[in-house]
Every structure is written in structure tokens, then in C-alpha cells.
Design goal:
alpha+beta, Gyrase A, domain 2, Cyclophilin, 4 domains, seven-stranded mixed beta barrel, six-stranded antiparallel β-sheet, 7 helices
Length: 532
């Protein structure tokens, strides 16, 4: 058992195999360690997030090191049958890799009874074990940028079904019309850890196909004439509802998401007297505009965008971020493009009347979970109940100087958990060169490029393991991706280091064409359990 650093509040437990991983997970589920927030089991690792005020990594490691690894997750009586059209574009390649005929591949896949070992990568994506050993094949050397929802695929000892359109490197052998993720179900994920799964060849099956129902809508009730509303007049880039995040859903493969700059979200809410985690709108670029139907107080924090208010008589005034802004009926508010920073956060006293999804109003752009994006024509209803609200704050200020395009931003990095997969030259390159932020960046991650790629020791394949927000994951190209809040829960490329939690808000404000300098603040070394 190894204990590897991920960040200041996350560690990775590396075990011998999947059985030991699931045994440790079952043990910690049955007898939790006080201070653990959540756990992400994977092929041979367990990623654990903990509360730094309750635990140190060394004390947590000590509490885990003596655990009995003979425990097992109780098998489920639930059997799920998945109808499959075996028409996958990699089916012939799988046959060649295994030395079997296409017919033999299909027969062995349908004759197997799988078990959902764990969920990750995307909501509803279950890692299935227990298949025929003859079907074990490597991932594709070049991952596809888009794999259709419902693709049935193989990789290593696992089988799985992609729940939505997404990039991926598994070998596709078929497709299913069954929905893996459906918010109208409870729970939404069709695959739950412990469930047994069988695949049925539709070409040989006479049974009627029953698919899951359509996704439940997240829209709120239509506002009435008496409601206080914002009518969105323009939204060149859709605004997104965000709060502090969606927690407790890792078992279904759902990550936390949430505002990329949480200090700005909290400041925007304090400006108007709301509780710190009240949902706000996260807005990028300029041009977002809306009309107010009644008197209220607005707050905007984060990237310092110009704010123009035009009243019913046509008079325009300018307003500032980090200050309460009083509005009257008929006022039109327009946000310009911020000269620096990337994201602005818009709050309103009382908060938006937005329906949470799985306990949060955050919109996860990768998982497609949460309220719909806010576009032109949307009418937003405002809560007017003031019970429990605080006085407005007049003394808010940014937590840091916002970077502009062309600036160099220094981010502290906790080295690990897979720094040892890189050569000394590769590790030195991470910190010695500037990394350019590319236009391909979004809430999932910042794609960066450097003149020199990060050099790995070899081309070994990493079994899927949990990833944290801030992880610097390095694909075969050697050009890293810095994961942000909407990143996949698990990943199959090594993470050389993770941005320290106290710099994550700053990372969320780095604009395209800025440069990043990574500053390691720890060396890569296993965590040693604390002595009693």
C-alpha cells in the first residue's frame, strides 16, 4: 500500500489490484475516518479528499494502513441487461488483437456476467469487471475526440458504455439505445457499484427494447406578472448558474463542478447580503444584458467588467464591481468585456429562483448536469423573501490581481502523484518554461502549450484513477491540461502535479494568451503514515 500526494487536501492510495481497492473502499464506507469528505475508487487506487482542519495526510495514512483488506462490497441482486448492436468501428481491430473471430468476440462478450466495480470519467459511466479474460485489449494509441453516447467499449480488463458524447480511447465494439444517465430516474445512473450487467445481442434477441425515459427538465415554473424578474436581452456567451459545488455524488461518477472563482462568488453574495453559497451567474466575455422588472440590489465580482445601467428615461450611468448596485423597474444592465480576468459573477439580493439538480445549482458543462445555460430571451425569477439575509456589504475587494492576456501567472504546484513517470528533464521542464494558455481552454480545463513537451520515462499505460481539480494531466503529446472544476472524475493519463488549492480561484481567472509558470512547492515523495 502506497500513499501518494495529490494536493494539500487529497491523497491517492495505491493498492495491488482492484480487489484490494474495493476492499479498502468497503472498509472505509463501513467504518469511516472522521474528516474524509469523499472517495473515488478506480482500477488500483483510491483517491481520498479530506478536511485539513481535522486530518493531516500522514494521520489519514496511518488510519488506513492497518485496515483489513479482506472486506468486499456485498454483491447486488440487481441485474441490468443492456441491448447492443454489435456494429462498433473497432470490432474488427478487437478481433485481430485477441486472435478471435468477430463472432467469437460477440459471443464471449454476451456470455459474460459483469459487475460494476466503480463509476467515474463521466456521470453514469460504470467500469465493468468480470468479463472473459480473452477480451482484454489496450486502449487506442490515439484517443478519439468524440465517441457517441451509447458506445459499448473495451479497455484492459474493463467493459463500459459511454453515457454521452465525449472524447475517449476505449475500443468500441457496439452501440446501445439504452440511456446510462437519466435525471428522471432515482438514482440517475443506470449502473451502480455492485450491480451485475449482461449484454444482449439485438441481432439474436427477440425481446422488446425498453429504453429509459427522457431527461427531466430543470426549468422553473413560468414567472407571474407579480414576480421580480430579469429578462435577458443579450448573451453572446451563455451565462451559467454556479454555486459552491455538487458534493456526495462521486458514486455515480459526478464531480463537484461549482464556480471556478469561489472567492468572487462569495464576495458577490456578500455584496447583496446573501448567504455565501447562494447561486449566481458566471459570465465570460462581454455583452450580457438584461432588464429588471422591479426594485432590487445587484452585486458583481470577479473579472472587473464595465457595468452600464440605462434607466427607463434613457439616461445611462456607470457602476463598479464589488459594490452593491441599486436597481429600479425598467433598468437595463449591460456588462462589457473585462480588460483582465476571465469570469464575472452576478448576484441579486434574495438569489435566483433556480431549481437545483442533485443538490446543487451548478451547471457542469462536461457532465451536462445542472440548470440550463442562460441565453437571450430567458426570463429569470428572483426570490424576494428577505428572511435570513444579511445587510449589504460595502467593503468587498478582489482576493488577487486579475491577470490580463499576455501576463505571466505563477501557480504553486504540489508534485505527484505520478511525477515518477517523468524523467528528471521532464520534471525540470514543467517549472523552467512558460506555458501558453490556448483558446481550446474552458471550464473542463486549461489547455496549455510549451516549446518543450514533458518527457516521460516510457509509454506505459496508466490504469484509470481519480483526478482532482487543479490536476496537471499529461497525455502522450507531453502538452499538459490543467483540470478545472468540470473535469472528469477519473482519467487515464499521468498527473505530474496539482495546483495548490489556494491558487485554484486564480487559475479560473487566467485568460487565453496569458502564460503560466508552474512553481513546485513540494517534492514528489510518498506520504509516510504518522507514528502513534
Amino acid at each position: 500500500m502506497r500513499f501518494l500526494p495529490v494536493s494539500l487536501t487529497v491523497l491517492l492510495v495505491e493498492l495491488a489490484d482492484l480487489d484490494e481497492t474495493l476492499a479498502l473502499f468497503a472498509s472505509l464506507e463501513a467504518d469511516p475516518v472522521d474528516g474524509i469528505i469523499d472517495m473515488v475508487p478506480a482500477a488500483r487506487t483510491l483517491m481520498i479528499r479530506f478536511r485539513a482542519e481535522k486530518l493531516t495526510a500522514e494521520r489519514l495514512a496511518a488510519a488506513i494502513a492497518t485496515r483489513d483488506l479482506s472486506a468486499r462490497i456485498a454483491p447486488s441482486d440487481m441485474l441490468v441487461e443492456i441491448p447492443v448492436n454489435y456494429d462498433g468501428e473497432d470490432l474488427a481491430d478487437v478481433a485481430q488483437l485477441t486472435g478471435l473471430s468477430v463472432e467469437d468476440v460477440i459471443r464471449r462478450h454476451t456470455d459474460s456476467t459483469f459487475t460494476v466495480a466503480f463509476c467515474g470519467f463521466a456521470p453514469g459511466f460504470g467500469y465493468l469487471v468480470g468479463g472473459d479474460p480473452a477480451l482484454q485489449v489496450p486502449r487506442r494509441q490515439s484517443p478519439r475526440t468524440k465517441i457517441p453516447a451509447g458506445s459499448v467499449a473495451l479497455a484492459g480488463a474493463f467493459s463500459g458504455v459511454y453515457p454521452q458524447n465525449s472524447p475517449g480511447g476505449w475500443q468500441i465494439i457496439g452501440t446501445t439505445p439504452e440511456k446510462m444517465w437519466d435525471l428522471s430516474r432515482d438514482p440517475p445512473a443506470l449502473f451502480q457499484p455492485g450491480y451485475r450487467v449482461r449484454f444482449v445481442d439485438l441481432a439474436k434477441s427477440s425481446r422488446a427494447l425498453v429504453t429509459s425515459s427522457k431527461l427531466a427538465t430543470t426549468a422553473s415554473a413560468e414567472p407571474s406578472a407579480a414576480d421580480l424578474t430579469f429578462k435577458v436581452l443579450a448573451a453572446p456567451m451563455p451565462a451559467l448558474f454556479q454555486d459552491l459545488g455538487r458534493f456526495g455524488q462521486t458514486g455515480q461518477g459526478v464531480s463537484s463542478s461549482g464556480a471556478l472563482d469561489q472567492s468572487a462568488l462569495k464576495a458577490a453574495n456578500r455584496v447583496v447580503g446573501n448567504p455565501a453559497g447562494t447561486p449566481v451567474l458566471e459570465i465570460i466575455l462581454g455583452g450580457f444584458s438584461f432588464e429588471v422588472s422591479g426594485r432590487t440590489v445587484l452585486g458583481i465580482a470577479g473579472a472587473p467588467c464595465p457595468i452600464t445601467i440605462r434607466d427607463a428615461s434613457g439616461r445611462s450611468i456607470e457602476a463598479s464591481t464589488y459594490q452593491p448596485i441599486a436597481l429600479e423597474a425598467g433598468d437595463v444592465v449591460t456588462l462589457g468585456q473585462a480588460p483582465k480576468g476571465m469570469r464575472s459573477y452576478l448576484s441579486v439580493r434574495g438569489g435566483f429562483a433556480v431549481k437545483p439538480v442533485l443538490g446543487s445549482a451548478s451547471t457542469d458543462t462536461l457532465a451536462v448536469v445542472g440548470p440550463d445555460p442562460v441565453t437571450a430571451g430567458t426570463v429569470l425569477t428572483i426570490n424576494t423573501e428577505t428572511a435570513g439575509l444579511n445587510s449589504v456589504s460595502l467593503t468587498e475587494a478582489p482576493a488577487f490581481d486579475h491577470p490580463a492576456s499576455g501576463d505571466v501567472v505563477t501557480l504553486d504546484v504540489i508534485m505527484g502523484p505520478r511525477s515518477d513517470w517523468f524523467t528528471e528533464t521532464g520534471i525540470a521542464t514543467l517549472a523552467s518554461q512558460l506555458w501558453q494558455v490556448t483558446p481550446q481552454s474552458n471550464r473542463v480545463g486549461i489547455r496549455i502549450s510549451g516549446d518543450v513537451a514533458l518527457e516521460r520515462k516510457d509509454k506505459a499505460e496508466l490504469p484509470s484513477e481519480g483526478t482532482a481539480t487543479g490536476a496537471i494531466q499529461v497525455p502522450h503529446s507531453g502538452q499538459p491540461v490543467l483540470f478545472l472544476a468540470d473535469h472528469p472524475l477519473t482519467g487515464g493519463y499521468p498527473v505530474i502535479g496539482t495546483v495548490a488549492e489556494y491558487h485554484l480561484d486564480l487559475a479560473g481567472q487566467i485568460p487565453v494568451n496569458a502564460q503560466i509558470r508552474f512553481r513546485p512547492v513540494t517534492s514528489s515523495a510518498d506520504i509516510k503514515p504518522a507514528k502513534a
